[in-house]
Amino acid sequence: MDSETTNNDGRMGVVESPVPVAAGQDTALKTLAQRMALIRAEAFGIGKSDVTMTKDGKSWTIKGHTVEGVLSEMRPLFAKHGVDFTPNLVERTYTGNRCDVIVDFEFESLDDCTDTRTIRWAGAGTDNGDKAFAKAGTNALKEMLKKRFLITDRDDAKEEIETVEHQTDEGASRVKLEAAQEAARANLEKWATTCRAALLTAKTLDDVKRIERENKDQLTSPDLASVTRTFFAELIDKRKKELTDAE
What we know:
This protein is α+β, with helices and mostly antiparallel strands and about 250 residues long. The protein has helices spanning about 30-45, 65-80, 130-150, 170-200, 205-215, 215-220, 225-245, and strands at about 5, 10-15, 50-55, 60-65, 85-95, 100-110, 110-125.
């Protein structure tokens, strides 16, 4: 709103504001603490969204604060009150398929870059792929905003959709070992099927000798079960005899 002043001749004059003011905007400069208090007051009304929970093949829906819901409501408030913040990673550790992070969120007044405040927060995320770090960062961001601006309440249920259970280093190693063993078993089965078919359809003695020579490493591998090794040895001898007799 424009302010009024009195001229020397007694008449009322108007002094124009140097910066246009939007309707309803408070032009008084505030400290960062005051701005954050205003954001907190307005953030109280952020509602909860439907969150689908899944565990042991069963699904159900609860009310919770999703990170998308929190951010969509908080962005306009930070812009309205002239506050910006930057996340700075302090620490990142892995335990099996779980990632833990510590993040410093530095808040800054857009009108005074020296008026800052840093809030340190931890987060965790689990994933069997490469997304554990991203989940941990998202968890830290959402929980920091909820607790700092009092968005949460005692009726909050579990917000995250947890389909991946945390595994220790030993557990994660066991999963990888079992996966490697299963892959090796599948490869062995594929090789054995192919080699057997080639031996059974070989048309000459030379073909059998060639197949035996090309598969020597697999046939003599210590990883090959003795029963499988015996099976192929007997099959090769049998086919050699059959084709020799045929000649």
